[in-house]
Amino acid sequence: MDVAQLALLRELADRGSITEVALALGKSPSAVSQQLRTLQRQVGVVLVERVGRGVRLTDAGTALAESSVRISTAIAEAEATWDAYRGGATGVVRVASFQSASELFVPGMLTRITEYPGIRVEFDDQDVSQDDFADLTADYDIVIAHRSDDVLPPAPSVLRVVPLVREPLDVGVSLGHRLAGRERVTVADVIGEDWIGVPVDYPIDRVLAAMAVAAGTPARVIHRSTHLPLIENLVATGHGVALLPRHTSLGRAAGRYRLLPLTDVRAGRHIEALLRPDRAARLAVRVVLDAYVAEAALQTSAPVTGR
């Protein structure tokens, strides 16, 4: 079996269509189809079947796609060993991350990897629904994702999941708000406020929805945005309250707004790195991932002050 042809099955399993596989690999759809037909002739088993106007892997195709992951990982591990023998990690590492995580980790991470001049990190802002982060691993070496407490991480058999930090979510209120003098609040204290939220089904929105269920009343969301500084500005100027990530927002809180922990609900988000196993084996990717883990440890050990 040809390793490159097996890799096409993995791509088809991840991307769902021959057209998407062709776009990702810089090939024509007909070339991808031809390689898949060649592989089918070699193994003597149907690997891909038509469904409507598209295709899907058969059970045999799925089994070979899973084998392709193990083969690609073994090759990447061998290359990493060779890179280490030759004296260092080199190459481009592509990272997708939502903005507030980039703000929290990227400056320190880049400082940590300056001793590896052969590594170049390319970043893309990707703030998507928490169910869609796993799909980004098809195009990026490292995906920095977040999920709410009630959602399980992807299965380790599919992706490598590296926990970075659980970040508490506090209620942000303006300095002139009626609750600004409190040290902490309950759901009942705040659920009736005007809320500045994030898009539906994002991790922070799921926490707010859980608060509404606990209180037995819907939350009144008057504005939604993925841009954290805007949300903080709206809170600071008294246009509503918001659930704000503690480690990320605390540095901008002094003199502008208060962060009040919730006492009667577990409010937080898990930030973690998602990687394909074969890409996680690359030496350059390991270096960048280790830098992220070190930065996360630094953030969680920092004293919580200025609230």
UniProtKB/TrEMBL annotation:
| A GO molecular-function annotation | DNA binding
Q: Start and end of every HTH lysR-type domain?
A: 1-58
Instruction: Pull one GO CC term from this UniProt entry.
Output: cytosol
Quote the SUPFAM superfamilies the UniProt record gives. Answer: Periplasmic binding protein-like II, Winged helix' DNA-binding domain
Keywords, A to Z, come to: DNA-binding, Transcription, Transcription regulation
Q: Its domain of life? A: Bacteria
PANTHER family documented for this protein: HTH-TYPE TRANSCRIPTIONAL REGULATOR YBHD (PTHR30419), LYSR FAMILY TRANSCRIPTIONAL REGULATOR (PTHR30419:SF2)
Q: Which family does it belong to?
A: Belongs to the LysR transcriptional regulatory family.
Its recorded name reads: DNA-binding transcriptional LysR family regulator
Question: Which organism's genome codes for this protein?
Answer: Conyzicola lurida
What lineage does the source organism belong to?
Bacteria, Bacillati, Actinomycetota, Actinomycetes, Micrococcales
